[in-house]
Design brief:
Pathway: Hormone biosynthesis; Plant hormone biosynthesis; brassinosteroid biosynthesis. The protein is mainly α. The chain has twelve helices and four strands.
Length: 311
């Protein structure tokens, strides 16, 4: 698994005291670039990440380049990121003309030019799409990784059971053998931990939708064409849906639960396309964290990482 190799490369660089949130951001950014463009970690990817961080900072400020220096810098950074990605797209188009193909998101976007649908993407459209996908996967997954470690540190029994599950997987492998898809599918309690982290943290608090027809809810009619905000947090933290809803309890997922009450990635045709990649990244990261670091070390990591500003 490419995710396993990238996570191991990052953890191999950890020395002394680290800021977990920052390290998680590096991992998720590199994983996303690998899936989108088949680019391995390098000085180029790290420089791009530093520029991209300014784009993210611009999301939470006054959207006016005159009143906000942060917003102005974010706009400039977005332009630099787009220019860097444009070069990659042009080079890949030339490679494609020479018969060189790769298995990634960019290749899939190129394929839309010749699939008979008559719908092709220009380079500018592809770059805009790539930037949007980076936004979707970078900050959310890294924050979830950070909070998963935080919740596990606060719940020693869950950490012990998680470690036991991964120790059993580790015992069947050698240090030179990476995790495979079968290993990922043999992590049931890990999925419980991930589900509960997503439910309690609610990284995405809700989604906007537009009604396609008149909708009646408890005697109130929402007219067709209305914009609606679906609060995922309200569903996930509702005591009627989950007992002790504000308590981190991964064991609750060991029995069947109503799937309509759990939607961290949205739902329907607009469900987050990267939901499985996010789960894989979380699972692989937790595997190496609990098998390569002692509990005391994990506690130290939790004490010294920076929490997201909205926690």
């Amino acid at each position: 698994m490419k995710e396993d190799r990238l996570v191991r490369l990052n953890l191999d660089t950890w020395t002394g005291r680290i800021l977990l949130m920052e390290e998680a951001k590096k991992i998720t950014f590199e994983l996303t670039l690998k899936q989108l463009l088949s680019i391995d970690p390098s000085e180029w990817t790290e420089n791009l990440r530093k520029i991209y961080m300014r784009v993210i900072e611009g999301f939470f400020c006054i959207p006016n380049p005159i009143l906000s220096i942060t917003y102005r810098r974010a706009i400039q950074a977005r332009k630099r990121v787009a220019e860097a990605l444009s070069l990659v797209v042009r080079e890949r188009r030339m490679e494609r003309e020479r018969g060189i193909t790769k298995n990634d998101m960019l290749a899939a976007l190129f394929e839309s030019d010749g699939d008979g649908s008559g719908i092709g993407f220009s380079d500018d459209e592809i770059v805009d799409f790539l930037v949007s996908l980076l936004v979707a996967g970078y900050d959310t997954t890294s924050t979830t990784i950070t909070l998963a470690v935080k919740f596990l540190t606060d719940t020693p029994l869950a950490l012990a059971q998680l470690k036991q599950e991964h120790d059993e997987i580790w015992a069947k492998k050698t240090a030179s053998v990476s995790l495979e898809w079968e290993d990922y599918k043999s992590m049931p309690f890990t999925q419980c931990v991930i589900n509960e982290t997503l439910r309690v943290s609610n990284i995405i608090s809700g989604v906007f939708r537009r009604t396609m027809t008149d909708v009646d809810i408890k005697g109130y009619t929402i007219p067709k064409g209305s914009k609606v905000f679906t609060s995922l947090r309200a569903v996930h933290l509702d005591q009627e849906n989950f007992k002790d809803a504000r308590v981190f309890n991964p064991w609750r997922w060991q029995k069947p639960l109503d799937s309509s009450n759990f939607m961290p990635f949205g739902g329907g045709p607009r469900r987050c396309p990267g939901h499985e990649l996010a789960r894989v990244a979380l699972s692989v990261f937790l595997h190496h964290l609990v098998t390569r670091f002692r509990y005391s070390n994990i506690s130290t990591l939790c004490i010294h990482f920076r929490y997201p500003s909205y926690i």
